[in-house]
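Allow me, if you will, to draw on your knowledge of protein folds for a short while. Thank you for your consideration; the sequence and its tokens are set out here:
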Amino acid sequence: MTAHAAVTGELPTPAQFAEVFESIEKEIGKAVVGHRGALRQILAAFFGGGHVLIEGVPGIGKTLIVRSLGEALGLSFSRVQFTIDLMPADVTGTRILEESAGGGRTMNFVKGPIFAHVMLADEINRATPKTQSALLEAMAELQVTVAGTTHKLPSPFFVLATLNPIEMEGTYPLPEAQLDRFLFKVPLSYPGVEEIREIVRETTGADAATIEPVFPTEADTQVNQLRRLVREVIVAPEVENYVARLVRETIPEVTENERVKRFVSFGSSPRGAQSLVLGAKVMALLAGRVNVAFSDIESIAAVALSHRMVLNFAAETEGVTPGSVIEHLVEIGKKWQR
């Protein structure tokens, strides 16, 4: 982005958006080995104005990705390790009694770690539902309410939560209402042989990777301009109809699709359609377009809808996943595009 665009409030061009996006990917890539597809999806959610839930086994780089993202963006960053004894006030902040210079006493609000542009909620499913719910208002309304007083969060505000899928003891599964607040759920897979070799080479040497901020100054202003540009991308009525039908087909009570009827208990909410469109708008800009194509929707369908679907016992016994159901619907949906 040019200095002129940053100063005047002029929206950047799709080419500038793609340039910044790729610069951020490059900086994060200095510290993070592999996960290129996941990184692109996380950044797509960030510029789409949503939040991301990252799922993966321990030690494959979830926390490193989030920390590197904060450094590359040049925004304020905080990390909270969610544990069973973590209280809501440990996240949002609390009021404390302080003595003034004149000897009086006043109640002052001390901000918690949630007052940052980028927040890492590490192992969010280890906290109790009461603490998990402390994030709901912040994620949906960009504010927190403490003792009846509402406090605005900085803009942009982005929550990246990590979820460990293999440790069930001492965890509290996220309720569907909270899962629905995340724009995307991004799975991280095991690295390959060459990636493991590169990880070992990069992390056991004398030199550590240095990530340079892509926005040296006015990072929050420039990020918000890029987010505004995403909202300006055009969605044709045909694409809107495709999105609505795709989401509608995930609901077993209304679809005629036998696979959905057999394996799905609850389908996606309307937020799934919003996530599809916002993510697709980012993908369109990266392709140099100012309009959403069907392929943009298809490219992010799995991460936008999988956490919004609840499968039944039959699906579990037959190894059917939300991703495979969505893939099936996307394939069928190609005929709706004509």
